Amino acid sequence: MITVRSAEARRHVHNTGQDTWMTFDSENASDPLQLGFRTLESFNEEGLAPGASFQLHPGKDLEILTYVSSGALIQEDSSGVTSVLETGECGRSSAPRGTSHRTINGSLTDQARAFQFCITPDRQDPKLRGEKRRFPLAERKGLLRLIGSSDGRNASLQLRQDVRMFSSILDPGQHLIHELSSGRGAWLHVVKGRILLVDHPLRAGDGASLVGEAAVSLTAQEPSEILLFDLP
């Protein structure tokens, strides 16, 4: 079964210098995706004005992934660790209960756009620290580039969960198929452009869950970028 979550269905919050679009509305008890989808607890798109920042206070142990689609972000946590993520980079950080994370637009002149996801870990591992990777366009052009996995294979970020996260850049007419193992589901998000997911047209900001499907099959209808989560 494929269920579409349209861009308009996301909750939009505007604060000074910050716009957030929440695919899963944690404050809406009537939202069937209030608690996320499977192990994917939150999926937010963030727009930050020059120099603007926002703070995340996880209520429980989480894996936080941040993908920067434009601009540069400075990330700080309450333990004093600081890192910089630039366009095309994805970072992972563990957020034990009680910690906080601050994200700042590193530019005083340019807007920044990023996607931030929280994943429920399946284990505790104090040896796992924050890391980041750059994923060049050439590695994502026309194929699904693995950017997060439980074992860090293929130079992907290592996650404390059996999740496989992919990114792809597509030209019009390019087709992708990703097979799903029995019992697993998928979440697809269109970062930009327009695609056809089987017979479901999706555009920038739209997402879709797949449950009980043998594969994710999609075709780009214009220059597009997608993110795909293969979830237990």
Explain what you see.
This protein is mainly β and 232 residues long. It has one domain: Jelly Rolls. Helices cover 2% and strands 53% of the residues. It has 1 helix and 22 strands. A hairpin with a 2-residue loop joins β18 (194-197) and β19. The model has no long low-confidence stretch (mean pLDDT 92).
Question: What CATH architecture would you give?
Answer: Sandwich
Strand numbers in spatial order across the main sheet: 1-20-17-22-15-13-14
Radius of gyration: 17 Å
Shape type: globular
> What is the string of helix and strand elements?
EEEEEEEEEEEEHEEEEEEEEEE
How many helical elements?
Answer: 1
What's the average pLDDT? 92
Largest sheet: 7 strands, mixed
What structural keywords apply?
7-stranded antiparallel sheet, 22 strands, 232 residues, Jelly Rolls, mainly beta, 7-stranded mixed sheet, 53% strand
Note the topology:
Blueprint: E1 2-5, E2 11-15, E3 18-22, E4 40-48, E5 53-56, E6 62-70, E7 72-77, E8 82-86, E9 89-95, E10 101-105, E11 112-119, E12 131-134, H1 137-140, E13 145-149, E14 157-158, E15 164-170, E16 175-179, E17 185-192, E18 194-197, E19 200-203, E20 207-210, E21 215-220, E22 224-231
Parallel strand pairs: 13-14
Antiparallel strand pairs: 1-20, 2-3, 3-4, 4-11, 5-10, 6-9, 6-11, 7-8, 7-10, 9-12, 13-15, 15-22, 16-21, 17-20, 17-22, 18-19, 18-21
